[in-house]
Write a structure and sequence with these properties.
230 residues, alpha/beta, two-stranded antiparallel ribbon
């Protein structure tokens, strides 16, 4: 509980990844990938309940040893390759409120593919969202290493390249000091107000940043899995 508000952590773990079969339960540093997100949530005294939503009975059997109070076997409708996050998270949120017989004021989204998180992200993101009454959600971001103003679009037919930014005159020639700040979203954490979900979004319009300064790890393929094992 945070400031007398109920907090729910949701961990989405679909089994149908095309890049790595059963990616979310592949071993990472000696433990299934999903374990790291479950343990991260468990270590926070602010999280009231942790829920895994998955399409796999195999996953549900595996996570029994982590002794969660509630896990969800999602429907096929919510398990396809092109299903977006919102319907999956809303389904888990509604089923959790029904199961635990209480409303959750904040929802924490922890993706298994980001297993190496900085300490206190849950506490810090909740504090950011609690203090900003107009905020709808908090999203983990990192300063973009390759600035978009320096990126180009290639026209295969004309054989020319052009800036992807049309409103700024020669953005690629601006001095570094004048470049606007651009941020890239990571998968470390998303913290959402209940009202934001109820209104139909996991982000809303007013998204607050929590800056990730450490190296960001996203397990998307076998190469990612091998490179980050040490």
């Amino acid at each position: 509980m945070f400031k007398n508000k109920n907090v729910l952590a949701i961990i989405p773990a679909r089994s149908g990844s095309k890049s790595i079969k059963n990616k979310n339960i592949r071993k990472f540093k000696g433990k299934p990938l999903i374990y790291h997100s479950i343990e991260y949530a468990k270590k926070s005294k602010l999280v009231d309940e942790i829920v895994v939503t998955t399409d796999s009975q195999k996953y549900l059997n595996l996570i029994k040893k982590y002794k969660l109070n509630f896990s969800i076997k999602r429907s096929k409708r919510l398990s396809g390759d092109y299903v977006q996050d919102f319907p999956v998270i809303k389904d888990a949120f509604l089923k959790s409120e029904n199961y635990f017989k209480k409303k959750f004021d904040f929802i924490i989204l922890l993706r298994p593919t980001s297993p190496l998180r900085s300490p206190n992200l849950i506490k810090n993101s909740l504090s950011i969202l609690y203090k900003n009454k107009k905020g709808d959600s908090v999203r983990a971001v990192q300063k973009s290493k390759q600035h978009p103003y320096r990126q180009w679009q290639y026209d295969k037919n004309k054989k020319f390249i052009s800036s992807i930014y049309k409103k700024t005159y020669e953005p690629y020639n601006l001095p570094r000091q004048k470049l606007p700040i651009f941020l890239f979203q990571t998968g470390d954490i998303e913290t959402i107000k209940r009202l934001t979900l109820v209104k139909g979004s996991i982000s809303g319009k007013n998204i607050l940043p929590i800056i990730i300064k450490n190296k960001y790890v996203d397990i998307d393929n076998l190469e990612d899995l091998k490179q980050n094992q040490k």
